[in-house]
Amino acid sequence: MPQDDDSAAAQARAPDDIVDAVFAIECRSLPVDHAHALSQAIQAAVPWFAQEPGAGLHTIHGGESGSGWMRPEGPDALLQLSRRAKLALRLPAHRLDAAAAALIGRTLMVAGSALRVGNLTLRPLSRITTLFSRSVALPAAADEAAFLEEALGELGALDVEPERMVCGRMTPVATPERTYETRSLMVAGLTQAQSLRLQKAGLGVERKLGCGVFIPHKDIADLRSRSD
After folding, report:
1. Three-state secondary-structure class, residue 224
2. Per-residue pLDDT averaged across 68-73, rounded?
3. I want to staple 126 with a disulfide (CB 3.0 to 4.6 A). Which of 58, 156, 167, 216 is the partner?
């Protein structure tokens, strides 16, 4: 008998074809909007990163930024990084060895700040059914209702149907060519299969700038389930 894709048995373990490569780092501070500078530094060390369809960047956040809803204000604001800060890349498993060889022990220059890359640990995608992205870049970002409607349409194209969605305020992500207006987005009430699908695919554009990359976000329903 064929097994339902969303069954608990089918999702007993998150697949390991896409994982987060999490590197220890030594870096005192970075600009709040460091996505482009960090992406360029990674691409200089790992040239294939830009063209790898399964790859994405997690931007680095200081302790005071919480879940990404708050961060220091102002164009010259800096994130003060603790020793627990990490550099994380979402990568296909077959790229892990190449990424480790290129990055471990290397010092990246990110907007004038030295960022030394240390040891690697692997973090599988989560089976938690509430997900959060700090910045989703969609054309309708300027209007909250239109943004949610557009996000729902793109999720539908992925066959992902959340029970609830909450977006945050607009946050700019600047590159030399343009500035993307983005919003944070929480989606809740997914199935485990939908959660994994969204983590793999992302939402919107500019995954290499950290946009549309989803991470687990525990709500009451997730806390009642088995720890991930």
Report:
1. helix
2. 52
3. 216
